[in-house]
């Protein structure tokens, strides 16, 4: 007898019936279309119990590692507890414990989370401010493994951006208590990537998840080459140069390049820039990467930045030979785009 | 009963290779590539696979209504018969590369053709 637990209700699975059909029969509106493992619209996540590997065909490695599966193909042999995969997972309380200004508009913010909260660097979390339920998503840039663990976030502060200003104000402790949901996302490192070549491309604070992934990879003794490209719209976006240079110093298999989409004027701003920034490249990151790296087949590719940038890069690298299932993307919205969308709709 | 192309190619496992060749062609084709701007490529690839599975005579759950609804926004953006032809052409060259005979390619094109009205919302 195999049972399914979903939304706090347990149902007996009939012999030979799929998880999807069982839940549909029970009246759960699980999205689905082909019922053959093709369209991937019926993906669910098992929080308890083993999922048959046959029900994970075609999913990304990092999805499989989180027990995602195609419910239409899943005929389990043991009890499963299930979640929708956009379910926000764990909930916890956290406090801002430190902040640091990195550039005029970018801050590092460290959170301490109370209780158990497991995650991988590179995934993202939703933060909700208790006083007004204001919610924003941020990627986990890295983890200090002291106890309790501190989560590092990189935050671009926008004029009028409520959450970014609130988090980076410099106030810490009880006045900066926040609730955390998550973790979410498929952008993280797995030990099985060890021998693979990896391309990491981040725009602006899209560096955050990549910085986490890079630390994870190096901690786990990554053997393949890693190419990290950090790109920005202006030199203010290019933070953490020293931190990354220090991190990769003993690792000749890591190549690190920074660049700007458009070269800045050689005016006052430019002359005030550090020497390191002057070493930055300029131009379209995707085009440069295609010149640097010939053939991306079998590469693990991580793309982080605004949705438009990520979508473009994904297409370019797919057409340059990468498999779509090897491309892990974390696209983010800024509050400005969110507001623009609200206004339009 | 004669084998379908789906069976000839080797069923579900072979579909991935075919979809990959096809999708790369479509995205590289300037006549139609812009219709795919901003789409979720993972989901789109899954849809391409479902479409090819159907066109090759494999199992499918496509309905005309699905095709209509899915393509309506593109029709509003100017999707017309010439774009449909370009997709069918890419399908043909994909199959040629996989060593499928012209006769069978004609059959696939004929199946694809049955979706024209729904895709173009005619």
Structure in words:
The complex is a heterodimer of chains A (345) and B (122). Chain A has 345 residues and is α/β, with parallel strands linked by helices. Chain A has three domains: 3-87, Beta-grasp domain (Ubiquitin-like (UB roll), Roll), CATH 3.10.20; 90-184, Translation factors (Elongation Factor Tu (Ef-tu), domain 3), CATH 2.40.30.10; 191-338, Nucleotide-binding domain of ferredoxin-NADP reductase (FNR) module (Rossmann fold). Chain A is built from ten helices and 18 strands. Chain A has helices spanning 19-25, 61-65, 162-167, 207-219, 241-248, 268-271, 275-278, 285-292, 307-319, 335-344; strands spanning 3-6, 9-12, 43-48, 68-70, 80-84, 90-101, 106-113, 124-128, 135-139, 142-144, 150-156, 177-184, 198-203, 226-232, 254-260, 281-282, 300-306, 327-332. In chain A, the strands form three sheets. A seven-stranded antiparallel β-sheet of chain A has the order 9-8-12-6-7-11-10. In chain A, strands 16-15-14-13-17-18 form a six-stranded parallel β-sheet, sandwiched between helices. The longest helix of chain A has 13 residues, at 207-219. The termini of chain A are far apart. The model of chain A is unreliable at 338-345 (pLDDT under 50). Chain B is mainly α and 122 residues long. Chain B is globular. Chain B is built from seven helices and no strands. In chain B, helix 2 (12-28) crosses helix 3 and helix 2 (12-28) crosses helix 5. Chain B has helices at residues 5-9, 12-28, 41-55, 64-76, 81-97, 102-113, 116-119. In chain B, 68% of the residues lie in helices and 0% in strands. The model of chain B has no long low-confidence stretch (mean pLDDT 88). Chain B starts with a helix and ends with a helix.
């Amino acid at each position: 007898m195999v049972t399914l637990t979903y939304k706090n209700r347990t149902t007996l699975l009939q012999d030979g019936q799929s998880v999807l059909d069982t839940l549909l029969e029970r009246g759960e509106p699980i999205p689905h279309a082909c019922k053959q493992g093709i369209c991937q619209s019926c993906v669910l996540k098992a929080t308890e119990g083993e999922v048959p590997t046959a029900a994970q065909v075609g999913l990304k490695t990092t999805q499989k590692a989180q027990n995602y599966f195609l419910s239409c193909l899943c005929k389990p042999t043991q009890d499963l507890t299930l979640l929708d995969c956009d379910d926000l997972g764990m909930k916890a309380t956290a406090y801002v414990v430190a902040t640091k200004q990195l550039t005029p508009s970018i801050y590092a913010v460290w959170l301490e989370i109370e209780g158990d909260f497991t995650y991988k660097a590179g995934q993202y979390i939703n933060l909700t401010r208790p006083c007004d339920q204001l919610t924003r998503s941020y990627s986990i840039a890295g983890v200090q493994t002291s106890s309790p663990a501190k989560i590092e976030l990189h935050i671009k502060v926008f004029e009028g951006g409520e959450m970014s200003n609130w988090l980076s104000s410099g106030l810490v402790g009880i006045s900066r208590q926040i609730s955390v949901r998550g973790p979410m996302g498929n952008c993280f490192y797995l030990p099985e990537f060890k021998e693979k070549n990896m391309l990491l491309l981040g725009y602006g604070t899209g560096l955050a998840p990549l910085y986490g992934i890079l630390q994870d990879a190096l901690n786990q003794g990554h053997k393949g080459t890693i190419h990290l490209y950090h790109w920005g719209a202006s030199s203010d976006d290019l933070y953490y140069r020293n931190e990354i240079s220090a991190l990769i110093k003993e690792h000749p298999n890591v190549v690190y390049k920074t660049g700007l989409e458009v070269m800045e004027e050689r005016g006052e701003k430019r002359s005030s820039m550090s020497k390191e920034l002057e070493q930055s490249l300029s131009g379209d990151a995707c085009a440069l990467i295609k010149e640097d790296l010939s053939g991306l087949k079998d590469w693990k590719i991580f793309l982080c930045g605004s949705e438009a940038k990520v979508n473009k890069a994904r297409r370019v690298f797919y057409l340059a030979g990468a498999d779509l299932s090897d491309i892990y993307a974390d696209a983010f919205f800024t509050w400005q785009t969110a507001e623009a969308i609200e206004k339009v709709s | 009963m004669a084998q379908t192309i789906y069976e000839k190619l080797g069923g579900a496992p072979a579909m991935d290779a075919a979809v990959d060749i096809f999708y790369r062609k479509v995205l590289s084709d300037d006549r139609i590539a812009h219709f795919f701007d901003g789409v979720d490529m993972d989901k789109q690839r899954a849809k391409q696979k479902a479409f090819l599975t159907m066109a090759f005579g494999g199992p499918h759950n496509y309905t005309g209504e699905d095709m209509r609804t899915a393509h309506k926004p593109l029709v509003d953006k100017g999707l017309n018969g010439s774009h449909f032809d370009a997709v069918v052409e890419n399908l043909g060259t994909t199959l040629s590369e996989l060593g499928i005979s012209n006769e069978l390619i004609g059959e696939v094109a004929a199946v694809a053709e049955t979706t024209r009205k729904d895709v173009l919302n005619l």
